Amino acid sequence: MNLKLHWKIVIGMVAGIMWGILSLISDWPIEFTTFYIEPFGKIFTNLLKMIAVPLVVTSLIVGISNLKDIKRLSRLGSKTILFYTATTLISITIGLLVVNIVQPGKNLPIEIKNELLQNYGEESGKHLEEAKKVQHEGPLKPLVDMFPSNIWSAASDNSKMLQIVFFAVIVGIAMVSIDRVHAKPVTAFFESFNHILLKIVEYIMAYAPYGVFALIGTLVVQMHSVDLLFELGKYALTVLSGLLVMIVIIYPLILNFFANINVFDFFKGINPAQLMAFSTSSSSATLPVTMKNVEKNLKVPEEISSFVLPVGSTINMDGTSLYQAVAAVFIANTFGMDLTLAQQLGILLTALLASVGAAGVPGAGIVMLAVVLEAEGIPPEGIALILAIDRILDMCRTVINVTGDAMVATVLGKPKSNKKLTKKKRAFFN
Ligand code: ASP
After folding, report:
1. In the predicted model, what is the mean pLDDT of residues 68-96?
2. Among candidates 349, 371, 360, which has minimal Cα distance to 400?
3. Among 283, 389, 402, which is best to mutate for testing ligand 1, by the most ligand atoms less than 8 A from CB?
4. What angle (nearest 5°) sits at the alpha carbon of residue 202, between those of residues 157 and 18?
5. Which ligand 1 atom is the nearest neighbour of the CA of 366?
6. What is the reported pTM?
7. What angle do CA 425, 427, 430 make, to 5 degrees?
8. Where are the domains of the chain?
9. Choice among 163-172, 225-234, 280-289 with the minimum mean pLDDT
10. Which candidate, 394, 371, 353, places its Cα nearest to that of 128?
């Protein structure tokens, strides 16, 4: 039977959920899953991370060296930042609107609150320590962090993706600036290497259904305090409805207005990346799949996607920032604080910065949430209240993060050129 890959992944996901439920209700020892199933999930995420750095380097170098005019690059850079900032601001605003309407946490029973604070106090302490480290760094630290002092050490750490992007961009620019004859062998090498890496992504994706089975199965088995999850239902539903607004209303609207693509084709094309984001909770690990989907299925030119997507996987997190806004108001509510408009605007700004600072790895959003809370005078220990349900929400917000990156890459790579756009807007895109 020749099933499409995304169906195979869905089957892996469902089988993982069934495995988890079955082992929970049959009281099978958790160790079996952690010793013999979990490693296959880890292998899968490791493989994805393994390919990310070389893929970004080669496709960026190939992409930029194909650019006829280097000025286009700086225009692409400013448009990317503009779209990323705008979508993140829209996303946080939607989060704040939804949370102010639903007001989760206002009536959380005190016993539940204490139970959550007690059960998750230790875990939240660890996140707070990590957040403290971030806070002690000056405001220009993220800027300094973009410039690698050693390219090999940057390339050995996936969290240094912006440094890799910086290096690859410089190499690409230099290649276009020197005599073609001198650049030719290097261009040919990277072009060939790029093809090889894309083939490897295909191999990794063939393993995806099994990897996803292992990841989801382990997650269900390790889920604890299921009854507490229900108490947090209203909060979770608030986050989810905000995320839903982004994916069913905002992104289609933006695509419709700015991109030359049918919205359904867009979602069909990036479906495997979304499934991957959901299963791994990591936009960085999903990056190779996002790049492949956006280039192959949506036909976005490599010189656009190879720049926009890696930058997005590190700095653009619509889902994470929306979740941070909702979580901050939820925690404030449970502590009986009524946030003023100024404080909510403060959340808007700090959540924007925090999502830029958050790495594309599981749980990064909650560490940065502590920074947002502290900045707005909300007790940061409150993150213990939401930890029980954080992993599930992490899976969902990562889907939005990845979709947002792909959406901007599509808008910039396939701009609308019909009469709907005014002359000025057309000029902006070209
Ligand atoms: N897991 C998210 C991502 O990788 C970040 C977060 O919100 O924790 O995009």
Report:
1. 91
2. 360
3. 283
4. 90
5. 8
6. 0.85
7. 115
8. 5-429
9. 225-234
10. 371
Burial of 223 (0-12, 13-18, 19+ CB in 10 A): middle
Q: How does the average pLDDT of the chain come out, rounded?
A: 87
pLDDT digits (tens, 9 = 90+) for 109-133: 777 777 777 777 777 777 777 777 7
Query: Is 45 touching ligand 1 by the criterion CB < 6 Å?
Result: no
Residue pLDDT, tens place only, 20-56: 999 888 888 888 999 999 999 999 989 988 988 898 8
Find out whether the beta carbon of 398 lies less than 6 Å from any atom of ligand 1: yes
Q: Which of 87, 148, 147, 135 is nearest to 315 (CA)?
A: 87
Q: 77, 312 in Cβ contact below 8 A? A: no
Query: Ligand 1 within 6 A of 285 CB?
Result: no
Say what the pLDDT of residue 50 is: 92
pLDDT score of 56: 86
Q: How far is the CA of 280 from the centre of ligand 1 (A)?
A: 10
Range 5-429: architecture per CATH: Orthogonal Bundle (1.10)
